[in-house]
Amino acid sequence: MAARPRVVVVGAGIVGCALADELTERGWTDVTVLERGELSGAPVPPAPGLVFRTHRHKTMTEFARYTAEKYHGLTLDGRRCFRDVGGLEVATTPARWADLRRRHGWATSWGVPGTLLDADACAALHPLLDAGKVLGGFHTPGDGLADSRRAAEVQARRATGRGARFLGGHRVTGVERSGGRVTAVVTGGGRFRADVVVSCAGLWGPLLGDLVGLTVPLVPMARQYARTTPLAALSGAAPPILRHQDAGLSFRTHGNRLGVGAHGHQPPLSGLTFTPDDFGPSWAAAAELLPPLRGAEVAEGVNVLVPFTPDGLPLLGEHPDLDGFWVAEAVEVAHSAGVARALAEWLVDGQPRTDVHACDLARFEPVQLAPEYVHARSRQSFAEVYDIIHPAQPGDGPRPLRTSPFHERQAELGAHFREADGWARPQWYAGNADLPEVGKIPDRNEWAARYWSPIGGAEALVARERVALFDLTPSKRLEVTGPGALPFLQAMTTNQLDRPPGTITYTLLLGEDGGVRGDLTVARLAADRFHAGVNGPLDLAWLRGHLPGDGTVQIHETTPGTCCVGLWGPLAKRVLQPLSTLDFAHHVMGRHEARFTYVGGVPVLAMRQSSVGGPGWELHTGADLGRRLWDALWEAGAPHGIIAAGREAFTSMRVERGYRTWGTDMTTEHDPYEAGLGFAVRADKGYFLGRDALEGRSAATVTRRLTRLLVGDPHAVVLGDEPVYAGGRPAGYVTSAAYGYTTGENLAYAWLPVAHTKPGTPVEIEYFAERVPAVVVAEPSDGPAGRG
């Protein structure tokens, strides 16, 4: 690619204009922005422009925060692009009030100032609000209104001043390519040479993706937006933007008129034209909360089409099979500048400073890109925008797309399933309700007990004391082969993989900046054959994106045709001994060793490792033989009290042992030493991606650390993302948390400045707006780890 590549941005909306501004500011000035219509500088109809910065995802909050800060500093012809009138979210139900207290914690964790208010204080902020209708509210002074028209135009002007050009009336009809790279964009008005093409086409994004064989999983959904007749109560200064999530409503002012956004309906509406019948229930709910509306009318209304994805998050990243073709789609005005900055950093620097894995285009499994699934889940994400979402809430959309060979047996045992990446994954088993261990599990408060059962705790106790079967089939598995397999994996990962066949190694994937992109376990099965357990589609895309072009390395995903069961617990050896062709009684397998064997007549790859700590094996075989393997283990395990155990037990046991999970405990924003994973880095083995960035770093040089906490209140089961206070001030935030059923400890992990990470240091965790005492404790005796 040229030092200053030719960039074509498709779409001159707010995102395209922001991206052109960010790219040209970084020296990429050969930028052409193409718009299919006229260059109006704003969406049609204009977006309401509400910027509520606090989001349950740290990344989305960062996007919104940067957007507000940037637009606050921009003016167009003397008029501001952002007004920080503040934001107010109100609760009319106890459940919503609890949710707002939790949201206050998110804001504190992500650095957004905010205050919880009583009903009278809420009414004092907003002149239309009936204090008798609300229980309280959450006020964030820095939130406000972005003028999308002005913001788009001023950024376009800035980019133009640096060399960019904006052209209207250019509908893209083709994208040319050569040697696996984009070379040009073709429109009805001409051909534009390009080294990089970025789709910021909004609702037209899927059509542009079709031109290059890329599925862009978004569906247009209609939100209703109405403006009222003038209201006398709005004659003063603009009140804060207002959100009434219990009714799916948002409000902003237009001078002395009120704009009402309605999201309470179920899609689709009667049509794309605004209809009073569709808006009627929302208007009634608005008038109940804001009594002055009872004397007003709807002066005008529109249905605003908004692109929604299956998980409600943006789509960012590069085409997996066409270098140079990028997307930035499903982006709201509130996140526009933040997304543009992240993508510009990604293009220019090779990686954004903000972790974007939750928004990465490659995050979906192939089966999740089926049109039926995309449509159904996008509709669901639309309907759930204002729902109170619990971390353990089961997926209640379309039935799971993928089931393991054990599914029938699990259903017979009363499995409580939750969907994960399209898989039906057991959380716990109703068939274990009569276990005597159930009575040993402490109760939880009402919120923490949602979508939870003490059965999961009992399963953890049995797994530690006897033996249990865990279905690991949803975990992604790869086979890396070829004469170049070892050099490739050595260059891509941090640990030493040049070890004898049969060895299992825990290792990391890093970015060029040394940030952790993923972790994986690699079993060397032969000189040129490796089995890799990875986190998901992002790891697969990263590895495939770095394959050498000489064909010496092949990567095949084996997940669909295989299955895996974790046989874990102190009696696991006794279960395996009579079934296997290996002599488990005499300990023929060392820790972190892989061997081929037969178990109950089933050919199996047995890997002596555990994701929950303690003794046991992962047993891999073909999907066609999975149920036979399960049945053989179940029958042989009966005399030893074997049970099936679910994800609740898995998570508790993982946290007890201090095992990290990528994407939760560490991301690209953290290096291995900060995350306590320095043991997986072998700088002396030779080159690997990210090695140079780690030079001079060590556990002794870090300024922050992933830290283990013991929570004082056993009933305050922390959910994750809560702020942690040290010395009375916010200092960090929680990542993983779980009650340790077998240790009797309420545990959490948190990112904290190194000065507050010494064992014995007292801290506090904000739990639903209350401070819960906690203390820093040492890692388990065998030290932190990834997968055991």
Automatic annotation (TrEMBL):
Entry similarity comment: Belongs to the GcvT family.
Domain (Aminomethyltransferase C-terminal): residue spans on this chain: 704-780
Annotated ranges, domain FAD dependent oxidoreductase central: 349-404
SUPFAM superfamilies: Aminomethyltransferase beta-barrel domain, FAD-linked reductases, C-terminal domain, FAD/NAD(P)-binding domain, Folate-binding domain
Taxonomic placement: Bacteria, Bacillati, Actinomycetota, Actinomycetes, Pseudonocardiales
Membrane spanning stretches: none
Start and end residues of each FAD dependent oxidoreductase domain: 6-346
GCVT N-terminal domain sequence ranges: 406-685
Regions annotated as coiled coil: none
Protein name: FAD-dependent oxidoreductase
